[in-house]
Amino acid sequence: MSNFEKKFGKYAVSNLSLILILCYVAGYVIQLVNADFLLYLTLNPYAILHGQVWRIFTWLIIPPSSLDPFTIIMLLFYYNIGTSLERTWGVYRYNVYLISGMLFTVIGSFVWLAIQYFAGGAAMNVEYVSTLASLYFSTYYINMSIFLAFAATFPDVQVLLMFIIPVKVKWMGILYGLVLVYDFLFAGSMVTRIAIASSLLNFVIFFVTSRNHIHMSPKQMKRRAEFKQDIRRNSKVTKHKCAICGQTEDDDPSLEFRFCSKCNGNYEYCQQHLFTHTHVK
Predict the structure, then answer these.
(1) For the residues 127-138, what does the mean pLDDT come to?
(2) Which of 20, 50, 207, 249 has the most CB atoms around its CB within 10 Å?
(3) What is the mean pLDDT of the chain?
(4) Which class for 33: exposed (0-12), middle (13-18), buried (19 or more C-beta within 10 A)?
(5) Quick one: which of 231, 227, 251 has its CA closest to 240?
(6) CA-to-CA distance for 143 and 149, rounded, in angstroms?
(7) What are phi and psi of 264, to 5 degrees?
(8) Is-contact 165 136, C-beta < 8 A?
(9) Cα–Cα distance between 14 and 123 in angstroms, integer?
(10) Which pLDDT belongs to residue 28?
(11) Distance separating alpha carbons of residues 153 and 156, to the nearest angstrom
């Protein structure tokens, strides 16, 4: 993926988790003003094929659940874990992961529509069925894929279950994975199975391709952040540097620097050595 990153990395969008949360905020506002209008924004493949192409994008603002204090807490939680993944993987790779989950979901909705036609679309009201099925193609499972990726990357991080019980996130990831497998095999309908499979395909690809080097403890994450800060600090170009003591504005922001008019060449000195240095002839 490095070759693609060199070509397309500059187009990666920072804070993608925050953007997704803001989309939900817009969705909640629409829900409060006119909840029925959300039906014109869902991922309805039948409607898209009949000219309502905006649905390819607008389904992202459909809130994953009703607005209540628990939902707000969960959205903040997903924002935090998404931001952690973005900082650890890098903006480009996190973009690829999240956007691929969205793209697979869109493709999955059209796969479901094709199955309906082959299963006897002429004998059923495909438009009505597609409207109902569009409610299943949401960002709910995409958010789940973010959590599963976090659990795979930081398996030993502890979270407080019900704000009381400390649990390692890997056990919650395993539990959620088992629930998804059960829903896919036994509890879900065809549309639910396709929604789960398409939305979580990005996690399957991620896990298969990265399972040997994705695990990272909080200490490793801290060391990586400190290393990047050291690199930026050491590679930073300073504007001023004393020719005698070598101090720069980074060493002491209060220092003042001046060029000496009596020295041959562009020699700059701090305030401590401006009048005490030996002139360069």
Answers:
(1) 84
(2) 20
(3) 81
(4) exposed
(5) 251
(6) 10
(7) -80, 115
(8) no
(9) 47
(10) 92
(11) 9
Residue 170 has pLDDT above 70, yes or no: yes
Closest CA relative to residue 192, chosen from 233, 146, 141, 136? 136
Q: What is the pLDDT of residue 211?
A: 57
Give dist(CA 165, CA 177) in Å, integer: 20
Reported as a single tens digit per residue, the pLDDT across 186-213 is 877 888 889 889 888 988 888 777 655 4
Q: Over 90: is that where the pLDDT of 133 sits?
A: no
Query: What amino acid is encoded at 233 in this protein?
Result: R
Q: Which residues contact 116 (CB under 8 A, 6 or more apart)?
A: 124, 126, 129, 130
Confidence of residue 159 (pLDDT cuts 50, 70, 90): confident
The residues, ordered by sequence, that sit 6+ positions from 268 with a Cβ below 8 Å of its Cβ are 240, 241, 242, 243, 257, 258, 259, 260
Please report the DSSP string for 39-65 in residue order: GGTS--HHHHHTT-TTHHHHGGGS-SS
Q: How far is 43 from 226, CA to CA, in rounded Å?
A: 42
* Structure token pair of residue 104: 């697979």
Q: Give per-residue pLDDT as tens, 101-117.
A: 999 999 999 998 888 88
- Residue among 112, 139, 132 at smallest CA distance from 58: 139
d(C-alpha 37, C-alpha 104), whole Å: 25
Q: State the CB neighbour count (10 A cutoff) for residue 250.
A: 13
Q: What is the pLDDT of residue 103?
A: 93
Q: Which pLDDT score is estimated for 213? A: 47
